[in-house]
Amino acid sequence: MDSALPGSGLPTCSVNISINGENRSLDIPPWVTLLDILRGPLELTGTKKGCDHGQCGACTVLINGERVNSCLKLAVSLDGVEVTTIEGLGTPDNLHPMQKAFVEHDAFQCGYCTPGQICSAVGLVKEGRARSRADIRELMSGNLCRCGAYSNIADAIEEVLGAEGAQPYKEAAE
């Protein structure tokens, strides 16, 4: 494996992971996280390393459609799963509806947390549990934005929820 991985040259395990629709056979040290695999040898740098402790959500990806902090997931535990990163959601010419809503609602400032926010928001919509703006805020609470774009992020998610057929709602005041 690539020398960008910690512990290269030591014993490895073989795993097969579908990443953004592409099957990958990887020989990796058993202690390497999915985040380090993505950003290192696979060069999928859209997923960000923030705290590296599962506290900020910058590294959120979708595993079999569910949102997961990739910094906490050992890559060897993912044999046979489907991983979707921000690069797998859409392209500049064909944005995912959530990516488009984030752009339209200016739901980012510095942009560092945005890939994790978008992946988490896509998972949130799929979960189908958000029934109010308060639900959106609670369900997105694992994704931090140091710039404070939370209102715009919630607006973008509300738009996609409405487009997905969820019952429209509006709270009187925020």
Question: How do the strands and helices of this protein lay out in sequence?
Answer:
Layout: E1 13-19, E2 22-28, H1 34-39, E3 60-63, E4 66-69, E5 82-84, H2 86-89, H3 97-104, H4 114-127, H5 133-139, H6 150-163
Parallel strand pairs: 1-5
Antiparallel strand pairs: 1-2, 3-4, 3-5
Helix pairs in contact: 3-6, 4-6
Protein name: 2Fe-2S iron-sulfur cluster-binding protein
Organism: Neorhizobium turbinariae
Pfam family, one: Fer2
Tell me what the structure shows.
- The radius of gyration is 17 Å and the shape is elongated.
- The chain has 6 helices and 5 strands.
- It has helices at 34-39, 86-89, 97-104, 114-127, 133-139, 150-163; strands at residues 13-19, 22-28, 60-63, 66-69, 82-84.
- Mean pLDDT is 91; it is low at 168-174.
- The termini are far apart.
- It is an alpha+beta fold and 174 residues long.
- The protein has a 5-stranded mixed β-sheet.
- InterPro entries: 2Fe-2S-bd, 2Fe-2S-bd_dom_sf, 2Fe-2S_ferredoxin-like_sf, 2Fe-2S_ferredoxin-type, 2Fe2S_fd_BS, Aldehyde_Oxdr_Iron-Sulfur, Beta-grasp_dom_sf.
- This is 2Fe-2S iron-sulfur cluster-binding protein.
- Residues 13-89 form the 2Fe-2S ferredoxin-type domain.
- Keywords: Iron, Metal-binding, Oxidoreductase.
